[in-house]
Amino acid sequence: MSKTLLVTGGAGYVGSHCVSALLDQGHRVVVFDNLQQGHRAAVRAPAELVVGDLADKKALAALFATRRFDAVLHFAANSLVGESMQKPFLYLGDNVQNAVNLVDTCVAHDVKRFVLSSTCAIFGEPDRVPIDEDVRIAPGNAYGESKYLIERILAWADRIHGLRYACLRYFNAAGAHPDGTLGEDHNPETHLIPIALDCAMGRRPHMQIFGDDYDTPDGTCIRDYIHVCDLADAHVRVLDALEDGSRHYNVGIGNGYSVREVLDSVKRTTGVDFAVKLAARRPGDPPRLVARPDKVMRELGWRPRYAAIDEIVATAWAFKRAHPQGYGRGALVAAA
Ligand code: UFG
Q1: Stretch 255-269: mean pLDDT
Q2: How far apart are CA 39 and CA 330, in angstroms?
Q3: Do 62 and 116 touch, CB atoms closer than 8 A?
Q4: 259 CA to centre of ligand 1 in angstroms
């Protein structure tokens, strides 16, 4: 059934791919984004973009007063592990307060369905890997802690106000829409795959590996890279499942790749060799984060369409080549 959905952060990387998937399902989508990290050009038509900030409760109230949302999907947040260990209160303060503003507004306007973009960073250095939903929660960085606090806020909103929510704990979102129009464009960029692709394009002199003395086979950190469209598909599916109650899912593909393996994949996929240097560990990085996605597969019928790292990297490479300087900036350069 077609729904009217509010997507906060819908101009950002994961949010924009979800908006696209929700539009494909015939839903009506309103994006609320302050365009701090998001891009106007990433909001696909016919989604409506409302530029605003979640810190502004009056703007939120005005938005909810003019529309009746069937559900809210909340992506907008500061989301960098490294930054969160330098500026913890941007996370424990802003991320959490903005979520309270949003949940409070949902309750005030009787919106009863909510999907949170959560993270596997809530598990810190897990006592068992692959990580299922029963692994002990113990965030190892301020970003993970902020998302866990928001999960708890939702649990209270459910208990007291009957808000049904889903927390999707993402592993490492990667890749780009296969049609080449949507992809990853952060400023500054800190993520492994886009930085490596910049090296392959000759836009950076070399790649840095943040630590090769972890307790992993090649000493570099292992992550579960999930294609951003597969992640979007999990959101589409969970919306319907919310009718049966609140839930949590770990969303990854169940395969881990080390930093070195990812760099090898980027070199293979692009056909470009580039310099790689060893650097110090980045505070807050756990050695190994890999999902056990059995629950999301069983309950939502979800399956990743992109299982191999080379396939994921290939889509990111296609976007990077089509938009060497990202969304808006590339167009400005072309016009100049
Ligand atoms: N890395 C490097 N060199 C770089 C960039 C990254 O060695 O130039 C390493 C990191 O140390 C880490 C791995 O590559 O070991 C992946 O790093 P990313 O920055 O790409 O991603 P993170 O794992 O830090 O974080 C991402 C999202 C978070 C999310 C997390 C879940 O940014 O929001 O995945 O694992 F919580």
Answers
A1: 98
A2: 12
A3: no
A4: 9
